Model the fold of this input.
Amino acid sequence: MTSVIRLYVDHPLGAGQSVPLTSKQSHYLFTVMRKGLGERLQIFNGTDGEWLAEVSNSSKKTGYLQCEKRSKQQLLPPDLWLMFAPLKKSRSELVVEKATEMGAQKIMPVKTDFTNFDHIRKERLQSQAVEAAEQCGGTYVPEIPELQKLTKVLSNWDERKIMFCDETISGKSISLPNIEAPWAILVGPEGGFSAREREMLMDMPQVERVTLGPRILRAETAAVAALTLWQFTMGDWT
Ligand code: SAM
Done:
């Protein structure tokens, strides 16, 4: 069985709507996948659901699709952010891929005291989120803002709850409370959190310290475990 191609497009979608392809998408569709006029695929733009569309114009570098009918309603993720400290190149990409699949609404790279990385490849991470949404059947692509300092982010924090994944309480049974509210998960870097970051977090009434079990997980594993725990407790899995 061949699976139908899904593409994210940055264009409004609706019945009869003509949608231009980027040169990268045209190359993928017509040269790599050898698709042509009249072939069907699924497209989504993050707001109008998923649409069945037909290739109405094709060349090596450009192409157009025409929307036929909606194949899936728009599904927005729960109001859940993931904050993580950037990891070595491909491991940050893994976090973005997994967090998109797991239904995070926003994926925020934060620079912590023990993070060695001063910059991220934002465009690369954003296209990782697009690819993950294309392959998992999602209709939403999480936003990835610029890297910001964790202490600065926390000093401007509103009432959003924070699920602080704290490896120092691992093994103790401190579980995630089921509180209906916007949430953000916070996962630290390889070196964990500094004393001043811990102090700042512990002073915030929005913070819930949570253990992810008796073993110390790598940051990317911790992100997936935390997202699973949150989704199971309060998310859109049911
Ligand atoms: N520096 C720490 C150490 O060596 O003990 C390890 C940090 S861990 C690799 C990276 C992040 O994953 C932690 O800061 C925490 O947010 C999360 N994490 C890993 N294991 C965890 C656990 N068992 N419970 C809660 N959070 C955990």
Observations:
- The chain has two domains: 6-72, 80-234.
- The longest strand covers residues 63-72.
- The mean pLDDT is 94.
- The pocket of S-adenosylmethionine is lined by residues 165-167, 170, 187-188, 190-193, 211-213, 215-219, 222 (CB under 6 Å).
